Amino acid sequence: MAVLIQVRDAHKRFGDQVLLEAAEVSLVDDKKVGFVGRNGAGKSTLLRVLLGEEELEQGEVIHHPSLRIGYLRQHAPFQPGESALDFLMRDSGAEEWQCGEVAGRFELKGAYLEGPVKELSGGWQTRVKLAALLLHDPNLLMLDEPTNFLDLRTQILLEHFLRDFNKAALIVSHDREFLKATCTETLELSRGKLTMFSGKIDSFLEHREERREHDRRVNATVQAKQKQLQRFIDKNRANASTASQARSKAKQLERLQTVELETDEPVVRIRAPRVQPRNGTAFRCEAMAIGYPDHTVASDIGFEIEHGQRVAIVGDNGQGKTTLLRTLVHSLDPIEGKMKWGHGVNIGTYAQHVYTSLDERQSILEHLEYNSDPEVTRQDLLAMAGTLLFRDEAINKKVKVLSGGERARVCMAALLLGSDNVLVLDEPGNHLDVETVEALCDALQQYEGTVIFTSHDRHFVRRVATRVIEVRDGRVKVYFGDYDEYLQSVEGEIDAEERERNVANTKDGKQNTGKGKSGKKTATDYRRSQQENRKVEKEIKNLEKKIARLDDEKRKLNEQLLTETDPDQAVKLHEQITDIDQQLTEAEERWLELSS
């Protein structure tokens, strides 16, 4: 196990803020590390230090002689008119067939590989950059928020790539699901200190909360003891017979003060808009088509949303999720068909076209005061602003000097301080750190209004969504299943495509058969076999969960059927039981097939 990078006694400041203070960490050649910390803690700064783009004020960074860093560039390194294949060949110096084979791992083919790369969406350009990284054969990958704006399919492809990548990686991300799927170690930057935890993100967060709770209890005990000692000293130091005891207690008090534990960072809490719960239909559309004058994105759309539901709009980038949201909030008119919101609906919107149109003359404080509910107290307003990183004098900054991410957070704060009973949110988790995303999940779960949202953060969607609507191939349909089942279906499609591609590459002779002259399996063949085994094991576990869930649903329906007196309702229950029986049969047959 070689140490690829070692950081010793690192010190770094940005103005009055301490980013690194006697920080130390070692990155070894066989670990994938998830790098977490609050926004502004200094994670991106440390990456630039490791890359040699910034200097430390004190301390050193030691690189192993064989270190080859692959850094996922955020800027576009592409030349005008260049295709993805041209870029890969230029960037890596590899042969065309090698570039094509690696590009295939990210589903880059046809127009995506041979057309102008600058015309691709951000997600597809990220796939090109990842293929370029792999062609350079790095032994340490550094990825800074790699899942930002990536759709679900691209995220899963990136996860597969990282699981198969048998070298080291350092990944900065706020996406818990992504870190859980790719990293076995967790590195935290907090108050200038680096702490390495030997475990996945979920275990780390649980361990950290236990540690903080322990610290709070210790602090409470110390503070109680301090008060007790101080009372004794105040009462007895003037009395000659007890003065020596008072001096002894004063020494004890002094020792307690020297070991006083560090207080916690502020706990993130987000207040949900306070609204009156409503019943019935919040939204209905029939035979609706959405899009633009020269292009129809999706047609024949019909669905209903009930008050109180939290609806996730899912689908790949470019399929029309944002177009659907813009149509729902009247930013775009339907091309045809009709849509209607229920009586008494007040819609609050969080989307890019909203936070790019803020009044630049206002300060953050003025904007929040103007847009918040009249019943919101100044304390609530300042607490919300602080949660979203606008603290102290920052709240008086003018909108015109804010970055895109800061403007987005201002809009989020104003929306949550309002009183809208329907929230339409386009990627609400972007620009927020792990703690703030968790707090937003809690707030939306407590919110008694209706939520319609898009997000590529699987942990966020799983926690918030009560219903799933998919936009795909020009259609919008309600997905009959929970979000985990939707994820499973996408994973299954990607696995099938990867198997087909491997078969095709083998037939074309572009992929090594994995056997040497002796006909024995090589390490490559063994790794492929292990990957296939893991996929089978995963599908078996998912099937077992599905079978257990279907059995439970069938049992409950049978219990209802035994007591049902309405003939029409009894027929419906029987049809539901028949449908579940069919699903059970298919799932059990597949389970038997895989188990054998």
From TrEMBL:
The keyword Repeat applies. Keywords: ATP-binding, Nucleotide-binding, Repeat. One of its GO terms (molecular function) is DNA binding. It holds the Pfam family ABC_tran_CTD. The keyword Methyltransferase does not apply. InterPro entries: AAA+_ATPase (IPR003593), ABC_tran_C (IPR032524), ABC_tran_Xtn (IPR032781), ABC_transporter-like_ATP-bd (IPR003439), ABC_transporter-like_CS (IPR017871), ABCF (IPR050611), P-loop_NTPase (IPR027417), Val-tRNA_synth_C_sf (IPR037118). Residues 499-510, 522-538 have a biased composition (Basic and acidic residues). Residues 5-223, 283-498 form the ABC transporter domain. Residues 499-538 are annotated as: Disordered. PANTHER family: ATP-BINDING CASSETTE SUB-FAMILY F MEMBER 1, ATP-BINDING TRANSPORT PROTEIN-RELATED. This is Putative ABC transporter ATP-binding protein YheS.
